[in-house]
Amino acid sequence: MVRRYLAALVAIALACLVPAVAAALGKPDLITLGTQIAIYAIAAAGLDLLIGYTGLSSFGHAAFFGLGGYTVGIMAFHAAGEKMFGVIPGLTEAWLVWPLAIAVSALAALAIGALSLRTTGVSFIMITLAFAEMFFFLFVSLKTYGGDDGLGFRRRNGIPGISPRDDVAFYYVCLTALVLVLALLHRVVHSRFGRVLQGMRQNPRRMEAIGLATYRYKLTAFTIAGGVAGLAGALHANLLRFVSPDMLHWTMSGDFMIMVVLGGAGTLIGPVIGAAAMVLLQSWLAQWTEHWMIVMGPILVFVVLFARRGILGLFR
Amino acid sequence: MSALLEVRGLMKRFGGLIATNNLDLDVTEGELHALIGPNGAGKSTAIGLISGELKPDAGTIRLAGADITGAPIAARVRLGMTRSFQVTSILPEFTALENVALVEQIRAGHSFRFWREAARDRSLTDPALDMLARMGLAARAEVAARDLAHGEQRQLELAMALMTGAKLLLLDEPMAGLGATESQAMTTILAGLKRHATILLVEHDMDAVFALADRITVLVYGQAIASGPPDAIRADPAVRAAYLGEEA
Ligand SMILES: Nc1ncnc2c1ncn2[C@@H]1O[C@H](COP(=O)(O)OP(=O)(O)OP(=O)(O)O)[C@@H](O)[C@H]1O
Ligand SMILES: [Mg+2]
């Protein structure tokens, strides 16, 4: 127990050193990579609540990631130009936009979950995928917001006391968000609610037999995971100052799933490791070959075959 | 006197197969009622229908006078009825204690509590430990359920069913897969339970059935061909022909 907290503190301390290391090596790209990892880790940790804890293989997580991102993009677009529908003004302040992004994604998750959770197994995977594709094509067709080409904006969302141009500060913002999300999810998975989720993964039939109305708990978990993905999407939009339908593409959903499984599903730190492994491998392999997936594929197969709990499982 | 559980004209078809055929069944408060019959007679299907896991094609089910034919499983559990399974059904990764504590948690109300650590909640673990002690599993509380011996797993299932606070237990072959000594131990446990709950017991172990049952209903091809006290069932020619005869 104590050792775990110590390990977490050491990990946070090391993560705080990334900008210093990047400066010492003269490689500012490292800061972007670190930010990228923190953001993906947030979304993957949320997805792990579904895959690793509840036993729900959602294949549409990119939809909520993208919706969070587009909330930021669209609000910035209207802040710079006309009001939305002529009445709703845009927003640029982080303390307003980010909660809005979380709310939009959580609401979408509530609606999509309400329908998809009536199915299980492969049908559930397919229906979550189908809903995500629907949102993907919605944003492709929204020409006002750039359609296929995406939507750029000039400035990151404002946070009092932090310059929107400061990449190091933004890294720390994302790192803080990641730590907060992990701490929250840690409480949740050990709470009564978390117990129920883990019970449903292990034996849903038994959970019903002892009197649990399972649907509402699955739906709540789905909504929480959606909201968390919305936050990650909002941060990602801020990192690039750009959103595009790519954020909602099914390959993005697949990447999130891979991060969870690669790092170790059912542990909160697993998805963080998975996100780091994925981002670092991708950027490293991309230097050698544009067909980096050819190398990535076998690595994935290896981890899934030989480590039941992902990369984390290799060290247990 | 009206029965605690009252089943009338229950029908269930799987495609062309009639698994439950116009079944009438009364389980009176306080009795241990055994439901026996050859393999494939429809015993598990009947348990599934009564517990709410399966939806009947026709018929009614009443629990303590209330019509529960269309009620969801959770509502039936709240009214005081739960089932166990023919194939061991536990939460394998949780410890024995966590398995039972989770049942107590569900019994105690909704689980939309996101903050406090459940493992340290004495209001859950204390009653769960008591229940494990009652089932003779106190020393095994911290063992992961998957690592328990088969007999212990069956006892754990029973502990979970009891922890729901059910007045009526639907037990589907609690002795399936048990050795002679373990079956004997389970028979003793069930005999002790009779004082606390009404039981509908599906079981192939005839020694156990005749030792425990106050009344027996015999199912063949989904139909109840006889129902009565053990002695009458033993003497019933139709039962002997259709069922007991096979074993003799
Ligand atoms: N879900 C299902 N779909 C189709 N047929 C089923 C289904 N469940 C049960 N059956 C069939 O219904 C009949 C009754 O099955 P059931 O499991 O109720 O028998 P049982 O009396 O419990 O048998 P056993 O003693 O072997 O446990 C069998 O012929 C079985 O094959
Ligand atoms: Mg059966």
Q: What is the terminal separation of chain A in angstroms?
A: 16 Å
- The CATH topology of chain A corresponds to ABC transporter involved in vitamin B12 uptake, BtuC
By CATH, the architecture of the largest domain in chain B is named 3-Layer(aba) Sandwich
What top-tier CATH class of the largest domain in chain B fits best? Alpha Beta
Q: What distance separates the N and C termini of chain B?
A: 37 Å
Main sheet record of chain A = 2 strands, antiparallel
Secondary-structure-based class of chain A equals mainly alpha
| Secondary-structure element series of chain A | HHHHHEHHHHEHHHH
Total domain units of chain B: 2
What do the pLDDT scores of chain B average to? Answer: 94
Give a brief outline of the structure.
With 316 residues, chain A is an all-alpha fold.
What does this structure look like?
The complex is a heterodimer of chains A (316) and B (248). Chain A has helices at 2-25, 29-54, 61-80, 94-116, 121-141, 167-190, 192-202, 204-209, 214-240, 250-263, 269-288, 293-306, 310-314; strands at 151-152, 242-243. With 316 residues, chain A is mainly α. Chain A has one domain (37-315): Orthogonal Bundle (ABC transporter involved in vitamin B12 uptake, BtuC). In chain A, helix 2 (29-54) crosses helix 10 (250-263). In chain B, strands 6-7-8-3-9-10 form a six-stranded mixed beta sheet, sandwiched between helices. In chain B, strands 2-1-4-5 form a four-stranded antiparallel beta sheet, covered by helices on one side. In chain B, helix 3 packs across helix 4 (122-134) and helix 3 (96-107) runs parallel beside helix 5 (150-163). Chain B is globular, with a radius of gyration of 18 Å. The mean pLDDT of chain B is 94. The interface between A and B is medium-sized, with 23 and 37 residues. The complex binds adenosine-5'-triphosphate and magnesium ion.
